[in-house]
Amino acid sequence: MEYTFEKMPAAEQIQQLFAAVNWESAQYPQALVHGIANAQSLLTVWDDTQLAGLMTAISDGSMNVFFPYLLIDPKYQGAGIGKEMACRMLDKYAHIYRKILVCDGNKAGFYEKCGMECRTDQRPMLRIDPPVFPTVQ
C-alpha cells in the first residue's frame, strides 16, 4: 500500500469510493470532488492504481483541525489502513490544539483506538443542507 499526501484521485475514483461505503455524499459528485480538492490536506492510500482510502483535514493552522472524511474501500477494511491514516494525519497536526471529527455513533470505538475521545462537556452541532453550485454558462 502506498500512503501519500501528494496524489489527487480522479473524480470517478472519489465518487466510487464514497458510493462503496454508502455515504450520502456520493449523491453530490460535483460538490464532493470540489470539497476534497479544497481540503488543506488529503491523504490517500493506493493499491497500485486502485484508490483504497482517503482522509482529509481542514485547519486554521494553530488552534483547530477538522477531519471531515476518513473512508476505506470495503475490500480493504479490517487491514489497519484506517488506523494508519488516522495516525499519520494526527501526527501531521500534532501541533494543533483541538482535533475535531464527527462520526456515526457506531464508529466511535474505532476513533477511540486512534486516541480521540468523546467529550461530555462539548457537543458537536450540525446543520446539513444540500450543496448548491451556480450554473455554469
Automatic annotation (TrEMBL):
> Its domain of life?
Bacteria
Question: Which GO terms fall under molecular function for this chain's record?
Answer: acyltransferase activity, transferring groups other than amino-acyl groups
Does this UniProt record's set of keywords contain Phosphoprotein? no
Locate the N-acetyltransferase domain: which residues? Answer: 3-137
User: Which controlled-vocabulary keywords does the entry list?
Assistant: Transferase
What Pfam families does the record point to? Answer: Acetyltransf_10 (PF13673)
Q: What is this protein called?
A: Acetyltransferase (GNAT) family
Instruction: Identify the species of origin.
Output: Ruminococcus champanellensis (strain DSM 18848 / JCM 17042 / KCTC 15320 / 18P13)
